[in-house]
Specification:
- It is a single chain.
- The protein is an alpha/beta fold.
- Helices cover 45% and strands 11% of the residues.
- The chain has helices spanning 34-46, 51-57, 61-64, 85-95, 98-106, 142-162, 186-194, 213-220, 240-257, 263-266, 274-280, 306-312, 314-333, 340-354, 372-384, 416-421, 443-460, 464-469, 474-480, 498-519, 530-544, 556-573; strands at 12-13, 48-49, 66-69, 72-75, 175-179, 204-208, 228-233, 267-271, 287-289, 359-364, 402-404, 428-435, 488-495.
- Strand 5, helix 7 (186-194) and strand 6 (204-208) form a beta-alpha-beta unit.
- Helix 7 packs antiparallel against helix 15.
- It binds 6-O-phosphono-beta-D-fructofuranose.
- 6-O-phosphono-beta-D-fructofuranose binds at residues 181-184, 234-236, 239, 242, 296-297, 382, 526, 529.
- 6-O-phosphono-beta-D-fructofuranose (F6P) binds next to loops.
């Protein structure tokens, strides 16, 4: 069922099942197990999935393939699956013990085996009376720690929001600048953008992540340092980019105030590394901690969300945590075939492994979710972009998809041409809300009409005969034909509230988890980011060296590129 069609056919063809476990070029490569083999056989038997026929033959299809969890509705009827595909996919979930691994995660077992850590981000949103522990310390209730930090965060956020917290010059805070990268940036910036409608007007929240000095320069543009609070967000407090930006911000503040003591009133730190925070010069009284069992990309509901809490207030932050919890409970209790993260995860496996489709587009028809695709890129690709299984053996077949996307309707005028008529099939998640925050014109009706129109057009296309019937001249018929059978999920929520955002994020967190278990990988480490970091450190030293001898320690390409930069740098610096 790969995207192997000509682009004008009406069906998508299922790959040859006979080659399933032997040759990547001729069919899906999957483990040789009963559930996988049943799926491959099913795909072969399904052969061609034509959504027009599927819907015509089964008037109940939409109803049967629409499920709800918390406030979210998922309609997955426009996917290239048959009536019994989901049953076979849930059998794969059972065979790979997704439920058992899920329970192990919630029980604090060290499922992050390469780092020997528990994975307990679900404790970040547990109610105060819950009990959750790292399995290595069963008598220590981590929920108590979580609520102790949440309480301190709320107290500080309230003081900042009310103007009681004043800076060095006795003035209230008007600008908050979060300095962090990856999980210490993408979650806070995504959520602050998503919940802009709930944010205080009198505080401007900005984000700096890139070590490109233009990022910090832009964030500092027009700010009054006397009214600015810098939040240095770094789980490890060793990240090159974050420390470079934080050092520069600190130097500017000290130069501006002429007083080192100003740092205490203008800097907060969010970290697991108290020593690193102290060494940097931030008083640990101004530090909000979290724990090694929180992965960076799973952390914006921890202290890492401080900038968000200041923006929207502790009550709204708490509503968001309740939303996360709602989805956690759904994931724990809903039967597999009606369990949103499970179903979305399994559909992703169907496309990635059986249909060999490499990407997933996430298309929010909610402008405030503009940064959601970027956030999901880290969540999904840093978690499941792996080729080695937990036991050290290579994976069999494909793992995480390439995640990308932009808000609709903007994307429609950019890349949807390829989605409709390109030679590759791109499964897509369309996300919409029933009620907007604004009351502007008929905009929301137009927006939602576009969402529904796109999923309909992608699914059902337009045949050559339909094009001809419109009187189109024959030479243009092929150009104006839409193949259809382009699979989409539609996710609808009542409104983009903090509560709904929490549910949406937890939905994708758990979807990624389901897939990681099925692929047998550790979704919670990220060794693949290390090599570049090490090489960059070495290259900085070489770039900044006064040694006039040419660079020779690398391959000829890297040597020449570095040398060219060094020459330009010497000229620039005189
Ligand atoms: O380089 C990747 C990464 O380690 C991410 O996993 C993490 O979210 C990001 O860097 C930032 O790390 P830290 O919060 O420790 O600065």
């Amino acid at each position: 069922m790969a995207g192997s069609g000509s682009g004008v056919g009406q069906t998508v063809t299922v790959n040859d099942a006979a080659a399933a476990t032997t040759d990547i070029s001729t069919g899906p490569v999957v483990p040789d197990t009963p559930a996988w083999n049943a799926l491959v056989a099913h795909a072969a038997q399904l052969g061609e999935v034509d959504l027009r026929t599927a819907f015509a033959n089964d008037p109940e299809r939409a109803e049967a393939m629409t499920i709800e969890g918390g406030d979210l509705l998922l309609d997955y009827s426009k996917h290239l699956i048959g009536a019994d595909t989901m049953a076979l996919l849930t059998a794969l979930a059972a065979e790979t013990d997704v439920a058992g691994r899920r329970d192990a995660m919630f029980a604090g077992e060290h499922i992050n085996s390469t780092e020997d850590r528990a994975v307990l981000h679900t404790a970040l949103r547990a109610p105060a009376d819950a009990v959750m522990s790292d399995a290595d310390e069963p008598d220590h209730n981590v929920v108590d720690d979580v609520h102790e930090v949440l309480g301190r965060m709320a107290e500080t956020a309230d003081r900042i929001r009310s103007g009681e917290w004043t800076g060095h010059a006795g003035r209230p805070i008007r600008t908050v600048i979060n300095i962090g990268i990856g999980g210490s940036d993408l979650g806070p910036v995504m959520a602050t953008t998503a919940l802009a409608a709930f944010a205080a007007d009198h505080i401007d929240t900005r984000f700096v992540s890139n070590v490109d000095g233009d990022d910090l320069g832009e964030a500092l543009r027009g700010v009054d340092l006397d009214e600015t609070l810098f939040i240095v967000a770094s789980k490890t407090f060793t990240t090159q980019e974050t420390l470079a930006n934080a050092r520069e911000a600190r130097a500017r503040l000290v130069a501006h105030t002429g007083d080192e003591a100003a740092v205490a009133k203008h800097f907060l730190a969010l970290s697991t590394n108290a020593e690193g925070v102290a060494a940097f010069g931030i008083d640990t009284d101004n530090m909000f901690g979290f724990w090694d069992w929180v992965g960076g990309r799973y952390s914006f509901d921890s202290a890492i969300g401080m900038s968000l809490m200041i923006a929207i207030g502790p009550d709204a932050f708490n509503e968001m945590l309740e939303g996360f919890r709602t989805m956690d409970e759904h994931f724990l209790t809903a039967e597999p075939a009606r369990n949103l993260p499970m179903v979305m995860g399994l559909l992703g496996v169907w496309y990635r492994n059986i249909a060999d489709l490499a990407t997933l587009a996430v298309l929010p028809y909610v402008n405030d979710l503009a940064r959601f695709p970027a956030y999901l890129q880290q969540l999904d690709m840093e978690s499941n972009g792996k080729r080695i299984r937990v036991d050290g053996s290579p994976v069999i077949g494909e793992t995480g998809p390439i995640v990308w996307g932009e808000p609709g309707t903007n994307g429609q005028h950019a890349f949807y041409q390829l989605l409709h008529q390109g030679t590759t099939v791109v499964p897509a998640d369309f996300i919409g809300v029933l009620e907007p925050h604004h009351a502007i014109g008929e905009h929301h009706d137009l927006l939602m009409a576009n969402l529904f129109a796109q999923t309909e057009a992608l699914a059902f296309g337009k045949t050559a005969d339909e094009v001809r019937a419109e009187g189109v001249e024959e030479r243009l018929v092929a150009h104006k034909t839409f193949p259809g059978n382009r699979p989409t999920s539609t996710i609808l929520a009542p409104k983009l509230t903090p509560h709904v955002l929490g549910q949406l994020v937890a939905l994708y967190e758990h979807k990624v988890f389901v897939q990681g278990v099925i692929w047998g990988i550790n979704s919670f480490d990220q060794w693949g980011v290390e090599l570049g970091k090490v090489l960059a450190k070495r290259l900085v030293a070489e770039i900044q060296s006064d040694d006039a001898a040419p660079v020779t320690g690398h391959d000829s390409s890297t040597n020449a590129l570095v040398e060219r930069y060094r020459v330009a740098r010497r000229t620039r610096l005189g």
